[in-house]
Every structure is written in structure tokens, then in C-alpha cells.
């Protein structure tokens, strides 16, 4: 059965939701599912903007067929070729033999790599090209590395709709509510939107900044992303979030304590630090056990907050492996401009603090590692209290600068 929503005059959401997939890209947990958004414009010519993941193809095809109501599909605009959007391209070509694909040279190259038969079906566009579909005239804007090199966005100059590809997307399936003003985004969606952005596109902040600059020059009224809600009000709210994330500026002053503990002693010390920070007036403190928190959540929180405390046991004379993985992920996603405090533990040959400092200072960009450090030998005791107080004071003092 078809399941569509009207976006604005002549434009419809024809995407689908996936609540069965547990790991997006087979790596990021999506307990709330994900939506694959596709949009159909019914102008003098009919135009489909992107497709969906293969897993959602049946629903998608029913939606398209219903709205076309016997009309041919003239164009398929592909803004992004990653298979969560591009996997159903060939099925569309098979069912609609006159459809032409509009996309970039790189996207066509990728389609061939994925084994699609597209010869004779291509219409290549470049930055700034325009095309009229009747009443609607669109402009194509390249958006390389947001989030693949072939990506573009399409702006409909007639109604101010921006088909933004992965940009402005979010994890989370749509439960009937399509628009941002139909949900409480700041309460129910922002954490998944941040986790989506930071883990999927976080590495490419400068490219997102370039796209935001281009977007600043056009009068956008509606943003139609490829995942999550469509934006038709309060665009500034989400643009501001994107401004922070893509420039690696924290959203909030606050402390994220990430601890690696084997028998609970490092966790206990991390708890003491959290309590001291709160007592000293910094109540925006969150604690995460690195071993049982998926790293995608840790990355998201690291992008949100200004301060990170890394508390790690020493393991095989190195950093605890799961903590090391978190560090490598932060580096891979280009996180920078954070203040970091270090707590180390080791029953003998305590090394993790020195190694974490070296990683932060030598492998990452613009990380301010506080001089104050707490070293524990097996478990915290009263002798550690002065260093613990100094660590808490150092964190608070660094916020006042
Ligand atoms: Fe939602 Fe980069 O694909």
C-alpha cells in the first residue's frame, strides 16, 4: 500500500522507513530506525529526486507508481550515489524505460562501478547548471564530500526547496510525521541528528562549511534531506547546529567524562571527579563507560561539549583498547578545539596518561590538554585527593578563560 506525504504544491515525499536495520552502514546502531527520503515532483515533466535503500524499495515503488498514476517518469535526479539512496536506481530504470538520470560525472562513474546499466540514460550536469521541468526551474550545486565526492544538492528556484542530499539529515524513522514542526526536534531528534552528522559527515567540516556558504546566498524555504524530517520552519535552528558541528565549535560548555575501567576503580574515581565538578558549579557533566557505550554516541557527545575527561586504565603497557579506539575515531572524524583532562590508572608501569597525552597532542588538531593530571595506582585513596581537586579546579578554570 502506498504511503506518501505532500511536501508542498506538486511535490511529494515518496520515501520509506527502515525499522529492521540495526546498524546503519553496518556500524552505527539505529534503535529508532532510519528513513530513506525520496521526493517526486509532478510538473509538466515528472521528476524523482533520489531513490532509497534496496531494503525499502518495494514501499518506494508503490509510492511512486501511485502518484504517477499512469504518467511516465521523465527524470531521476541523483544527488547522492551511496547505496542507502542509490541502490534502487536500476529498478527505476527498468520500470520506467524512458527515464533519464540527471547527475554528476562522478556519480555516473560510481553507478557503473556498482554495476548499473545506464548507457543512453544519462544527462550530466555541473555546478550552476539549470533545468526547467515546466513551471519549476532547478539549479544544481556541487557538494563534494557531503558526504561522498560525487554529491550535489538541487535547489528549486520556483518554490525555494533545497534537496540537500545527506546534509541536514538524521537517524530515526519517520512515524507519520514528516516535517520538523510536527515533531519536538530539540527534545526527540537532535541527539540522533547530531550522532548522524558527526559520525557520517563529521570528518568533512570544511566541505560542509563551503556548502553552508553557498546556501547562504539563496533563499531557502524548505529543506528536503535524504534522512529524517523535512525542514519548513525555524531553519536557522538547524543551520546554527551545522555551523557549530562543521567548524568543530562545541555547542555547550560542559564536561564529558569517558572512563575505561576493568574492575570499577577507575569508574569510582571518575565518579568522584564528576561530583566535585558539580559541587564547584559545573552541572553540565555526563559520564560514559567506554566499554559499553557505542563509540558513535561518544563521538556525538564529544562534538556537543567543550570539555572531555579521558580516564583510562593501562592495558598491556598501553591505552585500554576500547579507549584507544575512541581516540582513533575522534581523530578520524577530525574533532578539534576541545579541552581535555587526563586521569590514568595502573597497578604497575602506569602508562595510559602519557600515551593519551601524546596521542591528543601529536595526532589530533588543536586539542588543549590540561597540565593537571591524576595518576592512580590500582584504586583512588585519600592521598589522591589533592590531585583530584587540582584536576577539577583546572577544568573549571579552563572554562572561565
Ligand atoms: Fe545517506 Fe551518504 O548516504
UniProtKB/TrEMBL annotation:
UniProt cross-references to SMART domains, sorted A to Z: Lactamase_B
Pfam short name (any one): ODP
Domain of life where this protein originates: Bacteria
Domain Flavodoxin-like, first and last residues per copy: 255-396
Cofactor needs: Fe cation
InterPro entries for the chain: Flavodoxin/NO_synth (IPR008254), Flavodoxin_CS (IPR001226), Flavoprotein-like_sf (IPR029039), Metallo-B-lactamas (IPR001279), NADH_oxidoreductase_modular (IPR051285), ODP_dom (IPR045761), RibonucZ/Hydroxyglut_hydro (IPR036866), Rubredoxin-O_OxRdtase (IPR016440)
Keyword vocabulary terms for this entry: Electron transport, Transport
SUPFAM superfamilies: Flavoproteins, Metallo-hydrolase/oxidoreductase
Transport is among the record's keywords: yes
Family listed: In the N-terminal section; belongs to the zinc metallo-hydrolase group 3 family.
Protein name per the record: FprA family A-type flavoprotein
Naturally occurring in which organism (per UniProt): Caproiciproducens faecalis
Amino acid at each position: 500500500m502506498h504511503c506518501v506525504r505532500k511536501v508542498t504544491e506538486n511535490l511529494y515525499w515518496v520515501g520509506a522507513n527502515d525499522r529492521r536495520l540495526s546498524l546503519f552502514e553496518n556500524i552505527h546502531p539505529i534503535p529508532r530506525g532510519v528513513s530513506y527520503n525520496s521526493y517526486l515532483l509532478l510538473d509538466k515533466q515528472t521528476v524523482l529526486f533520489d531513490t532509497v535503500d534496496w531494503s525499502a524499495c518495494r514501499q518506494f515503488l508503490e509510492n511512486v507508481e501511485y502518484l504517477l498514476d499512469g504518467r511516465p517518469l521523465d527524470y531521476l535526479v541523483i544527488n547522492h550515489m551511496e547505496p542507502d539512496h542509490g541502490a534502487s536506481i536500476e529498478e527505476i530504470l527498468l520500470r520506467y524505460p524512458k527515464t533519464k538520470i540527471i547527475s554528476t560525472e562522478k556519480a555516473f562513474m560510481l553507478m557503473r562501478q556498482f554495476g548499473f546499466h545506464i548507457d543512453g540514460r544519462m544527462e550530466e550536469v555541473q555546478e550552476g547548471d539549470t533545468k526547467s521541468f515546466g513551471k519549476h526551474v532547478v539549479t544544481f550545486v556541487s557538494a563534494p564530500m557531503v558526504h561522498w565526492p560525487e554529491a550535489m544538492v538541487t535547489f528549486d528556484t520556483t518554490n525555494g526547496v533545497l534537496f540537500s542530499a545527506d546534509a541536514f539529515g538524521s537517524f530515526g524513522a519517520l512515524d507519520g510525521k514528516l516535517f520538523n514542526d510536527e515533531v519536538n526536534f530539540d527534545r526527540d531528534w537532535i541527539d540522533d541528528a547530531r550522532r548522524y552528522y558527526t559520525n557520517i559527515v563529521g570528518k568533512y567540516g570544511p566541505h560542509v562549511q563551503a556548502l553552508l556558504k553557498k546556501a547562504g546566498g539563496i533563499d531557502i524555504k524548505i529543506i528536503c534531506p535524504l534522512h529524517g524530517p523535512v525542514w519548513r520552519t525555524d531553519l536557522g535552528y538547524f543551520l546554527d547546529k551545522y555551523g557549530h558541528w562543521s567548524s568543530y565549535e562545541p555547542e555547550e560548555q560542559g564536561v564529558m567524562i569517558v572512563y575505561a575501567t576493568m574492575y570499577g576503580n577507575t569508574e569510582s574515581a571518575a565518579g568522584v571527579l564528576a561530583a566535585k565538578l558539580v559541587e564547584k558549579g559545573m552541572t553540565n557533566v555526563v559520564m560514559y563507560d567506554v566499554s559499553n557505550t557505542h563509540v558513535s554516541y561518544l563521538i556525538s557527545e564529544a562534538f556537543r561539549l567543550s570539555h572531555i575527561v579521558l580516564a583510562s586504565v593501562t592495558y598491556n603497557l598501553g591505552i585500554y583498547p576500547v579507549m584507544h579506539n575512541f581516540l582513533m575515531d575522534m581523530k578520524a572524524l577530525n574533532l578539534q578545539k576541545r579541552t581535555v583532562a587526563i586521569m590514568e590508572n595502573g597497578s604497575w608501569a602506569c602508562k595510559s596518561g602519557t600515551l593519551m597525552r601524546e596521542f591528543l597532542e601529536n595526532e589530533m588538531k588543536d586539542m588543549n590538554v590540561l597540565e593537571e593530571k591524576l595518576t592512580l595506582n590500582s584504586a583512588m585513596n585519600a592521598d589522591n585527593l589533592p590531585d583530584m581537586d587540582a584536576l577539577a579546579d583546572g577544568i573549571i578554570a579552563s572554562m572561565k578563560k
